[in-house]
């Protein structure tokens, strides 16, 4: 056999393999194109189906509202949706849940708003919810959110922020601007009263007031449950994202005072129930917010002493002494010093 023939025979299998690979590549591209077409078709069908479902749901909600005025409640929501007439149509207005204690969070129904395209829209909502639904004059809002700005510019910014806020809430709700979330009447802005507005700070204060009423009635066990519920709602200071905004300061300090009072009640109750570990936890929370609260140090010293942890009790006194001198330039009071003296002598306190 000639050498050239041998080379041709060796080349043929490679050429065949290359042709097969090219065919596979071509078929693969065709398959991709077909899959893209199918995906596009399914996406269109999904959008159309979603639209039909929304239309059907709105019709059902309208029917239910007209027949018996009842609210349609979705599983997992805090409460139901209100039916509100807007432009001749009945729209379901879901709950607007706003969390002001700790990190600011907003939920429209079950939808959490994670991204704010306008920080001033977010600030506007914070200010409005802080007024508990009462109307706020535009001049007050302009001064609070754009202090020192020329009035005409501040007014334009306020209008833009209100528009952005309506869009953010409407997008989460899916109402596409059909419902007026933020009203402006006679130069005053407010959250639409038709919205079922829920605020964690209002819920917190409600449980605090209920607990105080139950205490007066002598229902201590029930009062403690209310205190515990209120304490669990406190995830952080009021509007803690806006620590340096003057319009948040007074409310923040008032709510913090309430929180400290609740912790004090729970700490005292825990001690009376010989729940020293529980009392220690509450006292540590008190000191996190107010490191100069001597009553918390006194409880901590007593609890650790009764748990047989004398050294821990002594350490708490020393921390108290250092903190009082550093923060207030004073020494611990006579009762705190007396407890410390007993600890040094080996007595239980």
What is the C-alpha radius of gyration, as a whole number of Å? 33 Å
State the CATH superfamily name of the largest domain: Tetratricopeptide repeat domain
State the share of residues found in helices, binned by percent: 55-70%
N-to-C span: 111 Å
How would you classify the helix and strand content by structural class?
A: alpha+beta
CATH class of the largest domain: Mainly Alpha
The counted number of beta strands is 9
Reported CATH architecture of the largest domain:
Alpha Horseshoe
Report the sheet-strand fraction: 5-15%
List keywords for this structure.
349 residues, Serine Threonine Protein Phosphatase 5, Tetratricopeptide repeat, 3 domains, three-stranded antiparallel beta sheet, disordered N terminus
Brief synopsis:
The chain has 349 residues and is an alpha+beta fold. It contains eleven helices and nine strands. The protein has three domains: 1-67; 82-199, Winged helix-like DNA-binding domain superfamily/Winged helix DNA-binding domain (Arc Repressor Mutant, subunit A, Orthogonal Bundle); 201-344, Alpha Horseshoe (Serine Threonine Protein Phosphatase 5, Tetratricopeptide repeat).
